[in-house]
Amino acid sequence: MISPERSPSQSPRSTAAAAGAPFLSISVTDPVKMGTGVQAYISYRVITKTNLPEFEGPEKIVIRRYSDFEWLHDRLAERYKGIFIPPLPEKNAVEKFRFSKEFIELRRQALDLFVNRIASHPELKQSEVLRVFLQADEEKMDRARSYETGIFKRPADFLQMFKSKVSDVVLGKEKPVEESTPEYEKLKNYIFELENHLAEAQKQAYRLVKRHRELGQSLAEFGKAIKLLGACEGDMMEKVFSEVGSKSEMLSIKLQREADNLLFNFEEPLKDYVRAVQSIKATMMDRANAFRQHFDLDQERKYKELNLEKLKFMNPEKYAEAESEFRELKADSEEATKKFEHIVRLMNEELARFQEQKTADIGLAFHEFAKGQAKLAKDIADAWRSILPKLEACSTS
């Protein structure tokens, strides 16, 4: 059983159109399995509605697959250092579940959330690669994906480079230079703690989903068994036990529905924020790389500046050439410093936006959880309470 789409606050839709204000609304719909065997994949209709002048028209419908969403994510990550790129759902899945209705719907909702977060971001929504993703036909999209993935390194490549750097440090080949201000240390500790606590909450939410389904299945089997027992007994017992069995089967359905509600509206939002923290950590790695470049060039600049003063008096013939090299190095150092400071500024803005959205989304998820549990508890209590008089009459007869 598949739950309806998550609430508008989690998958934003602009209502500005009615007022004539600028808007950009995107829907990821109609997942369809294409191909067979190992070549099989899911395609999606991506519907864009907008009145922004940089788009080709008020509505555009394109067909996209997961690798196209991945292309969009990777290009944004390359171009927008310092910004938390919205996370994608996991690429890999156990083969036997990869094309299940539940998995497909979970992925569709996650992809819808991904593109709408980009569309609602003040900078990312202006990206040329977003317009390509939303408007290019399949042939152009394939060309763009093939061309750019051939030129740019993918995040996995950067991760491998990072691992190589770590190996160099462990082997004593290179001493790491890390930004270590009290504010940044506090931020890093918070992010790692947040990741751990979110992951644990999501794990427990998964267990709740599983237990609801197991209890629902047990009640269904119990209902069948108690009906057979009643039929064996006959007379009044048969009628009462049949009603007990029917109530059990009815509650089984409610438990399965609540399990779906928990999955889509509680566990999945928690899992989404585990992924979001991974995006923050990727931005922190960009910041660390920018800091190292800024630090290394600044140290080299200071060293060359001292040597330049010595050359001025000790070797005037080489001074002009050294001065030209120093000016070039100084420009590079200043550019690296600006880049690092730009990432720091963007990260501060992104953290404020992230905290605000996290509070709203996680608050909504827990509200949905509590509301669902309260309704389920009432339904269970009402169901069993309704047959208590008949069971009491049966037990005293």
From TrEMBL:
One GO CC annotation: endosome
A Pfam family per the record: PX
Full protein name: PX domain-containing protein
Ranges for domain PX: 22-141
Entry-linked CDD domains: BAR_SNX (cd07596), PX_SNX1_2_like (cd06859)
Gene3D superfamilies membership: Arfaptin homology (AH) domain/BAR domain, Phox-like domain
SUPFAM superfamilies per UniProt: BAR/IMD domain-like, PX domain
Cross-referenced InterPro entries: AH/BAR_dom_sf, PX_dom, PX_dom_sf, Vps5_C
PANTHER family: FI18122P1, SORTING NEXIN
